[in-house]
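note to self — DONT lose this again. spent like an hour looking for the file last time. sequence + predicted structure for the chain T wanted, 533 res
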Amino acid sequence: MRIMKFFVAFLIAFVLVIPTNANADTTFSDISTDYRFSDEITQLVDSNVISGYKDGTFRPDESVNRAQAAIMLAKALELDVNNVQPTHYKDVSKKSAAYNHIAAVTEAGIMQGSQAGFNPDGSLTRAQMAVVLTKAFNLKGDNKTSFKDVPKDYYAHDHIDAILTNGVTAGYPDETFRPDEPTTRAHFAAFLSRALDETSEEKEAVVALLKKAYENEFAIDSYSFDGDFNFGLSLPEELQTPEMQMFTDMLENIQVEMTGAYVKDPMMLEANMKLTMSGEFGVTMNMPMIMTAEKMWFKLPQIPMAPMPEELDGKFIEIDLTELPEIEGQPSVSMDFDLQMELSSVINNLFVEQFGPDFYQFTKADALQIPNNIDVQKVVKFELTNETLQPFVEKMMTVFLPEFFEVMQDPKYAEVLGMTAEDLEEAKEGIALINENLDEIIQSIHDTVTVNTLDQHIVIDKNDFIAYDVMDMDLDFTSEEGVFGLKMGSKMQKSNINEGIEFTMEIPNEDEVITMEELEDLMFEDMEDFDLE
């Protein structure tokens, strides 16, 4: 036994002291230490993205064919190559070693074939390389490409501009790109490695900046806000009867304009809301609201179709937040605003950690109309498409929600949302049940939901504050009754952050107020006077 222990110890020591090197310069006989793309090739070899030939060569000057490119892209992007949709390429056999990789990049929308097939043995031109890398890494250009052989109307101009902007290529010294030349193995390795590096660094930067911005939300002492919200619901034609027409017209376009101000200490919030419902019987309503840490006051507008009691005219309805009646069987919700902000920050950080690398990215400031008074640092875009909806839902169910409910185990956070220990346990059991049937749920979502648009633009200013936020959602839901459409959008700007705030409304006095109890009495009297006959 002692001899065996000695032998094992000797082997360990031998492995530790003998110099080993897995770099490309020692792996491939035709790649020297000072070869210009040695580092990039090494990175991809070490990541198992690319390999050489059985004779120990890399053959850097050989052309990359489309099948090889598909394999490398699928590996680099860690695409699921085991559960792929069948392809209909007549020139790609299911027995081919590249079949699943080709299916994966096709399903991801990175590489596409034609009616003639995928052309797996065809060379990938430098222009085609620019197209697939741009799609693979969602790269954006700045429209400053000046290659002599890439005119503005060239089909791959924007893609070549994108890889130039992102440092993936520099072109040739004679200011040409040579788009129609085949891409060599060395060049493809270099371009792919740089795209991975650029994307990795950008993902880290996006996550770090978002975390900082959401952390700063908790630190804001005061600000003014100005924004709008819109909502639209469209029904299938089969349900749009004459009797329903008035309501469907109103539901198709609801607009809310909002302005106001907020101060953290002592807490006070005021908001002026203007709601507009369109249609034949369209109506516009104004509803001012004031809130402190203890109470909230708001005015209900008079609605022509459902008039309120006259006693409410010009009156604020007062709600005592500290004495809200508990919902039967449920605990009261914590009104600790600092704790609410803390929980919001924790959830935002958790969401950014899980979804930031794959669903958020920097985008150009001119991607949307930003108010002129904002000193823009970065614009971050979140986007979901039909292609990315499935991985988003999978991560939501299998990663985010379980971690969210772990956070909610803290009693102070559970109290913020009014959740009991039993609620949390039931929610966790529900998530577990969903995960057991996740494939069916994903397929149901795929068959039911169509994402026309689902994105958010977050504008972060030079002080790392979220100064402007724009959301746009347009979904279709297919059911037996037909297709339902749902549209939602919002724009919200913060200004005067941590500067002097002037409120336009004052806390109402007793003569201007009706309590909830008095309101209930009025409504009850109104119902008694209503002649049911």
